[in-house]
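Researcher: Predict the fold of GDP-L-fucose synthase.
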Amino acid sequence: MVRDLNQAVFVAGHRGMVGSAIVRRLKALGYTHILVAAHDEVDLLDQAAVQSFFNTNRIDQVYLAAAKVGGIHANNSYPADFIYQNLMIEANVIQAAHQAGVQKLLFLGSSCIYPKHAEQPMREDALLTGILEPTNEPYAIAKIAGIKLCESYNRQHGRDYRSVMPTNLYGPHDNYHPQNSHVIPALLRRFHEAVQRGDEEVVIWGSGKPMREFLHVDDMAAASVHVMELESATYQANTQPMLSHINVGTGVDCSIRELAETLAKVTGFAGRLGFDASKPDGTPRKLMDVSRLKALGWQASIGLEEGLRDAYRWYVENVEHARMH
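Model: Structure tokens for GDP-L-fucose synthase follow.
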């Protein structure tokens, strides 16, 4: 695809970890017209406000990175918030984009759309073939609805709305709340504070046995722009009308115990690792099959330890105003 750097690109969710990374990527590539809107400017839960924003701005492309996200504890504690807010955000933005004549949109989903016991590594065609992980089912259903919204607008209206499903993401601008965050920021903060206090032990939720795949958010941003910029014929040749999403990951996983050991190394924690098996493990394994994305010419380039060091560096430099909610 010939890159048009003058295209007006709206990044929904630009203050979040993924959205901010996409903005950085677009700027690095030379895009000159990047639109963003803070919550106090446009509430994405408000249909009229979203429609007004699209009606008053020229928009050629949309990256839909806005979402309510969180780890196991947050998903368990606030299921209504997760399903309602994510459904409303994606429905409002996708409908408004269509009504405003926006032809190109990229929806960012999540690997939790796949069944709890999906065959590993998880292929795109595993979608809707089994029961979801109960702890994040409401969130997963909202993300599945987003995929189907994009597919439906493509089928009915001839739009070019695409979907990418990232594995577990981490990096700058993550949420570091001790309970509501994902595993990497939660543990990174815990190890950092343990080092500061001189603790002899850090306790990790669960058995440490589940296998997880982790992708640095800058890799995710690069993959997102790559998929968005693919020629329509190339994208369609590697997807199907009713299976149009593409997995984004590294294709490599590790156990939570191995992750904790690497985080201990990165943060300089020299004490013991404890595991609280009374806490839920979640899905036994979540590894993405990324062969479709590789066939489209992209693969991850940031290794786990390198990426964790970058995330930790950002956290230390921004700990006073990092997101803790």
